[in-house]
């Protein structure tokens, strides 16, 4: 193991060269022990590089780091580990060593859900619905544990009992953003947090694009929920496109600044995301299917069927598919608020209407 | 023999009898006041000396010892000036009177020998009456306040000279001039619930809160009318009984907030401290451990606007007084107990930006949860009713129809309170539904079968704790009382279940 870390720590050698070396010498130990001439047999390694490798033939730094990693309960995933997904290896820049906390399961490629930090209620809803759906279908939800969309995707997945992977742009012995510390613990318990950066690496702007690349390389599909004109989510989308993965984006209002990036993705050929089932199926099959025919219902509540009272019918009719406050219902039905309190409470308890935040109610007509 | 003049001291909100003993001894001219007086008491010597000079009396050129008995009780205030001056005059033979024993004296002296009003006159007068004293001499400005106590003759004077002449029987007392204050029945609050447009459902819950004494938390976007509603809550509270009014007046008298008013406080207090308030200003304390906002709101409403902006420590300090309805302020040198039975009304925004649930809100659930956590669980737990206030629509703002008047609402509140009064007649310390403990809830919150089924459904669906369960029962009890139903009906339960918006929302938050 210490040789792997030594290899990773070599200056002036990127993931591509590392992999060529590995291919040639089979194990990092062999690279460590190789002579200059043997090293120069590998394509792309000149005299200077070979000299540097030779010069840095010391395991002190690597074993120190290994010590720290063991102490901090961080595990290491090497390129040769069977748990390293083969799909992820397709990406030429795939790191030879990854640090992780939690459990990497077999078949860990999943679907990435990414988006802006300052998200709208719409984006939040899309992210939660998608993550919930994936979790129920046992597909790992992959994201970056940032505020906003990323966070909601992880949480919704965990709440639905799913498996989730978070890629971080810093060492695993810290948490960024800080308020996600509980979330990080939750992910470690039920999923895994992965980083290519050794412990003690503080988050820096330039680390995040690399993390985004990892997100897309481990995913079969990338759902960009919400992205403004310039955002990290768009970087992920572009990398995914370059890696040949399907990029999906829900449509946003034309003038909405928060959805400008995603709308442009659609214009550039990303799949229009209209239903979570698109995250499971092959690309082609979707166009042939009528999307209107099925609507994802989310958590189904057992509805005790009973005869509705006329006044209740009147209340339900007034909804017409929109979200309403008690005052708006009063306006539409002419029933006084004082009287409405009782009926709304009962309807909500029986799961016929849904109480949303800030005192609003929602009624979905069954069967639509 | 030492001359003795009776006066009083304040401890907490109660007065107690103090004998001011004055004795002249041969020795170098000096005056010493003993008996644990504070600085205001010690400084009396300067005021008295000047006042005696001004009144053409002679200040004794001897050693003078003044003792405030009981000597182990801390005393504070400037109202000992008059008894000290009278004692000196008697001791030096400049005032000859036999009737002083039947009189209590309080009053501060000015350097020109005039009497100035002082604080705490009401509790001191009560203490005088309880001690069997039949007459009390007070500064003229305090006559009205002292006269609130029945069964004691109050004499008000302007100057030291008048007092001396009266005690020497040189002048008859002219009697208290009945000031012809035309107490027209003007609404003391000057606000009315009819000015609140819309918000019917909210007002219904406010009526319930007022009727059952439930604490109330209003959540809403900036400018939706939280403060407007809160200001009108005292107008629907039942009027205070004579006893309650006297309690409140006593507290205000001790706090020195009665000067000028001088009459019984009949309106329920409404206190709205700014969120910058310190713990001591809220709970009581500081110099002489004076009553804080919670005691000033006794029998009334304590309104904490923007409760999330209050200091955490300050809010936590409310827990114990809310439970016990009294607050004991302990300092190394003294301990004061003040009553603090108030209805807590609080208002806050739902999230940092204030527009939660609105399209323009970009607060993440973590931020929302963090913001709400500023109010700790135990405090939130004491809020039986937590409702969203919806912003008013333009249509309602511009409509000419007005809502129910405070008068109408108050009648409903008083009706429900009368039922509760009957119910809790035998039980000490319980006046309204909000104060019920577990045993009482079991006894008085009988459910109809339909209501029980509904509550059961809610219990299973939302995984309520036993504690939350009891909260709903208490609120449902009040709903039933509004219509004089002995058992809690289905509709009462349904309405009560809608009383805690925030709790439901907390469960739906996307946080781990």
TrEMBL record, chain A:
Domain Helix-hairpin-helix DNA-binding motif class residues, every copy = 5-24, 37-56
Q: Which SMART domains match?
A: HhH1
**Mind listing the GO molecular function terms for this protein?**
DNA binding
Biological processes annotated in GO: DNA repair; DNA-mediated transformation
Domain of life where this protein originates: Bacteria
Record CDD domains: HTH_ARSR (cd00090)
Q: Pfam families recorded for this chain?
A: DNA_processg_A, HHH_5
Extract the InterPro entries matched here. ArsR-like_HTH, DprA, DrpA_SLOG, Hlx-hairpin-Hlx_DNA-bd_motif, RuvA_2-like
Concerning Gene3D superfamilies, the annotation shows: 3.40.50.450
Coiled coil ranges (UniProt) are none
Q: Which family does it belong to?
A: Belongs to the DprA/Smf family.
- Kindly provide the name given to this protein in its UniProt entry: DNA processing protein
Organism of origin: Natronincola peptidivorans
Automatic annotation (TrEMBL), chain B:
Per its UniProt record, what SMART domains does this chain match?
AAA (SM00382)
SUPFAM superfamilies in the record, alphabetically? P-loop containing nucleoside triphosphate hydrolases, Ribosomal protein S5 domain 2-like
Which molecular-function annotation in GO is an example for this chain? DNA binding
Q: Does the keyword Lyase apply?
A: no
Q: Which InterPro entries match?
A: AAA+_ATPase, CHLI-like, MCM_dom, Mg_chelat-rel, Mg_chelat-rel_C, Mg_chelatse_chII-like_cat_dom, P-loop_NTPase, Ribosomal_Su5_D2-typ_SF
The alphabetized UniProt keywords are: ATP-binding, Nucleotide-binding
- Sequence ranges assigned to domain AAA+ ATPase in this UniProt record: 212-393
Q: Which Gene3D superfamilies match?
A: 3.30.230.10, P-loop containing nucleotide triphosphate hydrolases (3.40.50.300)
Recorded family membership:
Belongs to the Mg-chelatase subunits D/I family. ComM subfamily.
Record protein name field? Magnesium chelatase family protein
